[in-house]
Structure formats: structure tokens, C-alpha cells
Write a structure and sequence with these properties.
By secondary structure, the protein is α/β, with parallel strands linked by helices. 31% of the residues lie in helices and 23% in strands. The chain has an eight-stranded mixed beta sheet with strand order 5-9-8-7-10-15-12-16, with helices on both faces. A four-stranded mixed beta sheet has the order 11-17-13-14.
Length: 308
């Protein structure tokens, strides 16, 4: 392994790098390929940059596990603030991967401006949000990996909180951090509830981090689900693969996810039929799925009549 290089970023935060000779390496592991080293001339990315193309890479270090953060972006006005919230973290062994869906000149200008704060960024057409997540997962080199969307914000020292849990819990697969949605705080982890509801964690972005090797066992997000593909991933993690997760304390808030999630933009019936498809594909009992549909629908009708 090359010598450790220490750099101070624009926010006066220490970052660890290793100088690695540029090479192309595709690693087969579980259900997806990891693109861990890249030669710019050998990628199919439409437009790309970052510190990896200066042969500066991040690696796990004893007592300093590498945390990979994937930031999907598509024409988001908050992109700069989201990047700043990551680069301003005090934890030194942190990598940032930005996956932009060909947002145009403004996004490219921002990515070039923060080129030395980003380990690798990509800008090209994609197949939606879940495709962007998958690209990021394939590029991640960390011990743990999480998603911070370009509309989100990490709070100061949140990665220090995360790493404290990582170091104290060697046998866990994922960590569910407390997050803020709008004016409310969401915390907890309820694996026993997954047979009847999928929102068993506070959020799949900002506060959720999974061990990369555990994610490779589960596999990537399924692109056939246009909404709630993250819920399918969570179901496979908890039910199919029996991964072990823990939660953080209520007051250990990792950051803000804004006013709501991606799935909230869709109607009730689209959402519930998509959830039932996820459950059916994962071989949950068909009679229980019928119970979920009629039980929730009747409850929704009852509430709409009560609160008219």
C-alpha cells in the first residue's frame, strides 16, 4: 500500500488519501460488480472528475474506517450546500461520490469548483434515482456506505457519531441514524414491523449506513420499481438476508432530509400497489398481502371521513 497522504481541505478539515497508480480493476463480489479503480480513458462515463483521477484514493485505516457517501443529483439548487455539509465534516477518512444525471452547465460548474473535495463525480444520463444510487454503490470503496441526496444536509460531526457506533459494534451490518424531516425528528429501528409496514427506519438517506460487504451480499436496487426501491432493499436486508442493524440515540441527529421523501410524490394506490408487488416478489404470503391492502384502504377511507 502507498504512503498515507494528509491534506487540509477548504474548510480546514483533515483528509486522508493514498497515492495509487491508476489502473482499471473490476471486482466480482456477490450480486454486483465493484468498480474500485478507474482509468479515465477506460470508463464509459460521459463526463467525470474528482481526486481519483489524480491517483489519490481513499482506503480503510485501522481506527479510521472509510465512510463512503453517495450524492445523487438532478438539477437540484441545493447541490452546493449539500456538498459543503459533507466536506465540512471533521472526520478525516471520508469519501464523497457525486452522481449527476446530466443536469446541465450549472451542475458541471459546481462539480469542477469542488473537484478537489470530491473523490469521483459523474455527469451523464441515467435511468432515474435508483440507477444513480447503484452507480455510486459500485464506485464506493468504504467500509460503510450511505446516501446523502443533493437536497439533503448532513449536520456537523454526524460522521463522527456514525464512526463511534461502527467502532463499538464490529458485528453489525447497518446503522439507522436519527434524522430531521421538516420540523419533526424521526428515530428508531423496528425490524419486527416489516411484515406489515416497510418504513421501519427513520430514512434511507442521510441517517442510514450499511457495511459495503453486507450490501454486496444483498445486491443492488431493483430498477423495475420506479418508487420505493429502497424499501425493497430494506426488505431483502432484514427478511431475506437477516442482516443485523442498530439505531442511534434520539438526540444524535445526522441531518435533514427536507420536507419528505421521493415516494411521497406519488398517490396512495400507486404507492400501495408498488409495495404489494415488492412483497409478492419477495415471496410474502399472498393472503397477508390482501389483508394489508384492504386493512390500509379501509383505514384511509375511515380517516378521510372522520376528518372532513
Amino acid at each position: 500500500m502507498s504512503n498515507l497522504i494528509k491534506k487540509i481541505n477548504r474548510f480546514n478539515k483533515l483528509r486522508f488519501f493514498f497515492d495509487i497508480a491508476s489502473e482499471s480493476k473490476i471486482v466480482e463480489n456477490g450480486k454486483f460488480q465493484s468498480l474500485t479503480y478507474l482509468k479515465k480513458s477506460e470508463t464509459n462515463f460521459q463526463l467525470t472528475g474528482g481526486m481519483r483521477y489524480k491517483n489519490l484514493f481513499k482506503n480503510p485505516i485501522k481506527d479510521y474506517p472509510l465512510i463512503s457517501i453517495i450524492m445523487p443529483n438532478y438539477k437540484e439548487k441545493n447541490l452546493i450546500n449539500a456538498i459543503k455539509s459533507v466536506t465540512n465534516q471533521s472526520y478525516p477518512n471520508l469519501e464523497l461520490i457525486v452522481i449527476d444525471g446530466n443536469s446541465g452547465e450549472r451542475a458541471i460548474k459546481v462539480l469542477h469548483e469542488y473537484n478537489e473535495d470530491i473523490d469521483i463525480w459523474v455527469s451523464e444520463n441515467d435511468n432515474g434515482l435508483w440507477d444513480a444510487w447503484n452507480k455510486g454503490f459500485k464506485l464506493a470503496r468504504g467500509d460503510f456506505v450511505g446516501i446523502v441526496d443533493s437536497s439533503n444536509e448532513l449536520y456537523e460531526n454526524s460522521i463522527d457519531i456514525l464512526v463511534n457506533y461502527v467502532l463499538r459494534n464490529e458485528n453489525i451490518d447497518f446503522i439507522c441514524g436519527t434524522v430531521k424531516k421538516g420540523n419533526k425528528i424521526f428515530a428508531g429501528y423496528r425490524p419486527k414491523d416489516i411484515k406489515k409496514q416497510l418504513n421501519i427506519i427513520p430514512s434511507s438517506v442521510v441517517g442510514f449506513y450499511i457495511k459495503l460487504n453486507s450490501l454486496k451480499k444483498v445486491g443492488l436496487l431493483n430498477l423495475k420499481y420506479k418508487i420505493q426501491s429502497d424499501y425493497d432493499l430494506i426488505y431483502r436486508m432484514v427478511v431475506i438476508h437477516n442482516l443485523k442493524g442498530i439505531r442511534t440515540q434520539n438526540d444524535e441527529i445526522f441531518g435533514s432530509v427536507g420536507e419528505g421523501g421521493y415516494s411521497l410524490k406519488h398517490g396512495y394506490f400507486e404507492t400501495i400497489f408498488n409495495e404489494l408487488k415488492i412483497r409478492f416478489d419477495n415471496k410474502q404470503n399472498i393472503f397477508f398481502l390482501i389483508y394489508i391492502f384492504f386493512g390500509r384502504t379501509l383505514m384511509k377511507i375511515y380517516k378521510s371521513l372522520m376528518f372532513k
